[in-house]
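Data availability excerpt. The first of two example chains:
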Amino acid sequence: MDKKKQELTRRQDQAALGGGQDRIEKQHAKGKLSARERIQLLFDENTFEEIGMMVVHRSTDFGLDRQKIYGDGVVTGYGTIDGRLVYAYAQDFTVFGGSLSETHAEKICKIMDLAVENGVPLIGLNDSGGARIQEGVRSLGGYADIFYRNVRASGVIPQISAIMGPCAGGAVYSPAMTDFTIMVEGSSYMFVTGPNVVKTVTNEEVTSEELGGAMTHATKSGVTHLTAANDVDCIKQIQQLLSYLPQSNGNKPSINGFVLSDELRPKLNDIMPESSTTPYDMRHVITELVDVDSFMEIHEHFASNIIVGFGRVAGMSIGIVANQPMHLAGVLDTDASRKAARFVRTCDCFNIPLLVLVDVPGFLPGTDQEWNGVIHHGAKLLYAFSDATVPRITLITRKAYGGAYDVMNSKHIGADMNFAWPTAEIAVMGAKGATEIIFKKEISSADDPQATLIEMEKEYSDMFANPYKAAERGFVDEVILPEESRRKIIKAFSLLANKKKLTPDRKHGNIPL
């Protein structure tokens, strides 16, 4: 028996080294951790149980039969994170560059199936050179098997992808279909075709970092939701993100312990500038509304005119969507609309209530926006809110103009509670533009057109640039003082805690993609 135990230990030690100590050192030299080091950091101490440690590939072509390494380039298993069961896989770049083979894919698929069957979150740590070319279509089939499972798991369990090295070609589509993607700055990249192919086809000179680095996707494409300074920071962000999410769509997020006080926030009374055209930072409003240090922004560097992220109110996990007057006056455009729509859909999938903060002057005009489908993208956000069944609360802080008022979780598209500050302006458009249309004849025929314009503009403002017409109609449930906002929101979410909304019997809606 001793010899058999020694043989088992030898094989386990061999598997733990992956491609060998030299290759692990090369990972370290690049500022990257090994697959198993990442797993150890991710999970609670001594809770990770590995599955498929002894798996090797079945290939015999191109001399692969002489290169068999335990694990075949991916570590798979389960454990606990902050006491919660989680399944995960971590690709091992020290083994064939983390390339995906038939058996590599089978290991990932097994973990994905177990995660769905048990209603448990799935985390993928990606660090791979792509398909294992020597295996041809078998490797491509492995990718498709994973893609299929990503779709089947979508909206059922939370799926988080961390890009901690290369992720190119077909490999990019699995992270793209998960709920959240995190990229490590300086050591990760994602693209369908690399710089060499780009140069051949389009004659463009571009580096891997410029083409598909973390900040490229964080600012230009919106492909990545979060960026991390290094592997350790990436793991910490995964753990934090997971804390806001439930185990599956059959559960609600956990509620942290919280003791309520009077919950007044006097600082909110001083946030709004005197002039309605002066910007202010909506993050300051969010900070005052949520529990201390609980806000985690998502897509921070993409479409800065809208803010999305997670926070807690009285210990309860919520999703926040807020116009940002500091950027483009908080208008909705193509990128802001699809950013917010995706976030709303994600929250609705996983029973996370929504708080919407509104200060929106409308949709961004111009040929660029129209030709790039602002109608289509704006409709995505409208559809997402209208289709959401989670508790939804809206707070209008200042402007809510035109169609953007409707889209930003108005009462008309199913919001449960709608509040407004006294500074709210709910109208078809701004006073100046409305006056120039309504009183065009009076202004043009007046002895002093400028004075008449100012007079008519004041008349329009007095009538519509306030929340009271909407409140009279019941479109706003209550006009509140800014300092009361947090207390009102906590009570409203408590009121809606057991909300159930029946939806029409259908296969699925046809969101304007």
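And the second chain:
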Amino acid sequence: MQNFGVVIFILAILISLSTVTDKLRLPYPVLLVLAGILIGVIPHLPQLTLDPELIFLVFLPPLLYDAATHASWHEFKTNIRPISALGISLVFFTMTAVALTAHYFIPMFSWPLAFLLGAIVSPPDATAATGIIKGLGLNKQVISILEGESLLNDASALIAYRYALIAATTGNFLFWQAGLQFLLVAGGGIFVGVIAGYGLTVLHKRINNHPLVETSLTLLTPFLSFLLGELVHTSGILAVVSTGLFISRRSPEIFSYQTRIQSRVVWDNLIFLLNGFIFILIGLQLPGVLKQLTNYRLPTLIGYGLLISLTTIFVRILWVFGSAWSFQYYNQRKTKKNLQPATKKADPTWKNVLIVAWTGTRGMISMATALALPLTLYNGTPFPERHLIIFVCFVVIFITLVVQGYSLPLLTRLLGIKASDHQDKEEKQLQLYLVRSTLHFLDKEFGQKLESHVRNTLKIEYDQLAEKLANEIATLKRNEKRREQAPIRTLTDIQKAQTEIGLFQRKILLRLHKDGNISNEVIRQVEREMDIDELKFQQLLPKDAE
């Protein structure tokens, strides 16, 4: 009951901080970790420890599943080479570099312990990266690569962690055996995830038009996939990711609009609470860890943490730029071989490469795996340097979150990267295509006979909408070449009148609710219909007017 009170207190802090994030101009994950540290030093507050099993079973599956369902399968497939280079190859390269640094510069770190630390701090955190890059207007391909990397690197790091832990606790390790096992575990996890995704899509089709049941099933999906993957001794994480990507690709044909609206609201709230809670919990770990390290001087501990942090940051920059250069060199060789003329133009891709290289924030997975270290070895002796590993891991998370996370918005401004309207333009173009196709459908293919005045009314409405969308697309194209952005959407006189009418109707509904002459059930039903109408209307308003 005491821990439950602390949980409620943390949730209250989380909700309070979310209201001031924009005003403080601080990335959300950074703010929450700092808040967790401050909460942790409050005297007489019961310590709430981060249970690794809770992270792996309760927090990780829904967070990864949500990220996978938001990812585009087509973009994931298009960028599979850079995603694989970051999500798999870079993880092992980082682990090796950290192991070398820890073994030679931190006393008492044997090779197994050094590789164990490398496996713990090697994967960047999906949640932290998403929270930091949100709203920066980054290149579409950059976002796709960062999101795709976050779907693979956790699985790579956890498999590496598993074998490093075996080597540290038993002293036995066979490289060829670990490599073969990695392929089996990873491949098996993907296979299990696809099978689970296929089964769940069939199930969703059979329970059509039941939004509440379908939304509940989406909440169970990541846990079912994760547990199934773990049950057959494969990667539960890759199973969840594969299931999410499979269902994301099939979602337009298996979910009704009611289910999509309802499940999106539920999932947005769930992910908000899980993300916030986990980052505050990370900050809360520092005071407890420091109490266990009385044999070390604080400057020495911070020095170790900074050393490993700089290693992870430098290795990522080196790897990303090296991979980008080799990829460009390969393309140039291929172009020359095909005798295609090379086009000379200013190449801005180095800016995008730098953004990818700098976005290597660590978080939930690293802290959970560090805390999951056993207390003793198989022979009963205490696990060597366990608390030091946890502290170094915390410093790496803190440095990468605060330094890289806080400086990323500044870096985008220094590089001259402005918020891109590419997605807005693509959305308008799709809407215009739908409208013009509808006009053709009304003229040539409409199955039922329409009265002339009905057909003319519909055509006038869609003609006006097509003209409005065409003007907005033209404005977006002009904005791409201008420093000052012209407004994309403006309020028409009708929209202004509809806004005032909506406010007037809300006042009447509120008065009737207070009078009590009409039942609450009827009022709520009318209110729900007004909410849906207002939601549709808000999509048409200018962003500044929303």
